[in-house]
Amino acid sequence: MSSYNVAVVGATGAVGNEMIKVLEERNFPVRELTLLASERSLGVEIDFHGKPVPVKVLNEDSFAGMQIGLFSAGGSVSERYAPIAAAAGCVVIDNTSAFRMAPDVPLVVPEVNPEAIAQYRKQGIIANPNCSTIQMVVALKPIHDVARIKRIVVSTYQAVSGTGKKAIKELADQTRALMNFQEVQVQVYPHQIAFNCLPQIDVFLDNGYTKEEMKMVNETKKIFNDQSVAVTATTVRVPVFYGHSESVNIETEKKITADEVRKLLTGAPGVRVVDNPAEKAYPLAINAAGQDDTLVGRIREDESIPNGINMWIVADNIRKGAALNAVQIAEVLIRDYL
Ligand code: A2P
Question: Which of 28, 157, 183, 273 has the smallest number of CB atoms closer than 10 Å to its CB?
Fold first, then answer.
């Protein structure tokens, strides 16, 4: 089997750390692993298969001889360096929103639209969707295929790890401070996140929605390759460390019962149905954390309309929502294209 030189850009971050772990766990055929971050990380080493790998400072020459670049160092780093990497022959799998809506860049969830990867040749870049979008489309695609989803209404309950390591620390620090009757420091989020819910993720746009909400709307249509699916979203940051939860309501063209949805999703790729109200069994963020599957439960018919279903969808935002999805894309890339 061939092996590949892989670069991880943003290797010291929450998603970068997980990318390294997922490459190792899935035995991705890595010939040489290059870890890249800012000059702040000089001297840092991260273990890969039991050996310490030094973190190097990202620069324009970092991609010579690389075949695959996993990027998760923020949109501005991707905007600048992804085209440089692609020009050097390194296929970029980008976890930021920088290229997601670019017409020539495929936006891929391997369980949903692996065929889109073929478009990578145009720019040498493949975009990894937003974490909240990924888990939603993994659960909804099998339903869309049989009953055609006309409209999606989603509200999210998103973990702080999606904002990166500084946000994980902010929730821990604020929680500790409040339990000790001390004042909280607010730095990463616009308001206190501990013991609170913030109905703002990313910046507000002219239409009154946040950028995160519009990512869910636009990315879902692109991944389903179906502009006719109506999507409306409210995205909320909650004081959870790992695991995004989502309340999802769908309206379908064809009638589908809750039982049929349960059957359809049982055995669907990347999905695990956890739905036994009698046993108080439903998806929980603390159970999804560290897992690969997207958990789906609370499946029930929406009695307010003829063809509606409600469900609760939970996944590890750092794994399926970011690192795992990126590595799965890389697996299809080397299997079918490189
Ligand atoms: P560093 O640790 O050197 O700052 P998180 O999302 O958890 O905050 O992590 C962000 C990741 O992106 C880190 O690995 C961080 O490296 C990296 N990063 C941020 N800005 C840059 C930059 N200008 N050049 C290279 N890496 C960067």
Answer: 183
**DSSP code per residue over 20-56:** HHHHHHTT--EEEEEEEE-GGGTT-EEEETTEEEEEE
What does DSSP say about strands 45-48 and 51-57: parallel, antiparallel, or unpaired? Answer: antiparallel
Q: What is the dihedral of CA 93, 98, 101, 103, to 10 degrees?
A: -70
Q: What is the distance between the alpha carbons of residues 66 and 76, in angstroms, rounded to a whole number?
A: 21
Q: What angle do CA 249, 250, 253 make, to 5 degrees?
A: 160
Identity of residue 77? V
Closest by CA to 190, choosing from 201, 182, 179, 181, is 201
Q: For 319, which DSSP code?
A: I
Of 12, 34, 128, the residue with max ligand 1 atoms within 8 A of its CB, to mutate for a pocket test, comes to 12
Q: Could you report the per-residue pLDDT of 257-290, keeping only the tens digit for each?
A: 999 999 999 999 999 999 999 999 999 999 999 9
| Selected catalytic residue, list 49, 90, 144, 244 | 244
Distance (Å) from CA 10 to ligand 1 centroid: 5
CA-closest residue to ligand 1 atom 18: 73
Bridge partners, residue 166, by sequence: none
- Cα dist. 259→1, 27, 317 in Å? 43, 37, 27
Closest residue (by CA) to atom 14 of ligand 1? 10
List, for residues 151-165, the tens digit of each pLDDT value.
999 999 999 999 999
Question: Comparing C-alpha atoms, which of 323, 253, 243 is closest to residue 6?
Answer: 323
Global pTM value: 0.97
User: How close is the Cα of 85 to the center of ligand 1, in Å?
Assistant: 17
Q: Could you give the CA distance from residue 106 to residue 98 in angstroms, rounded to a whole number?
A: 12
Q: What are phi and psi of 288, to 5 degrees?
A: -75, -30
Establish whether 90 is a catalytic residue: no
Q: Which residues line ligand 1 (CB under 6 A)?
A: 10-14, 16, 37-38, 40-41, 58, 73-74, 77, 164-166
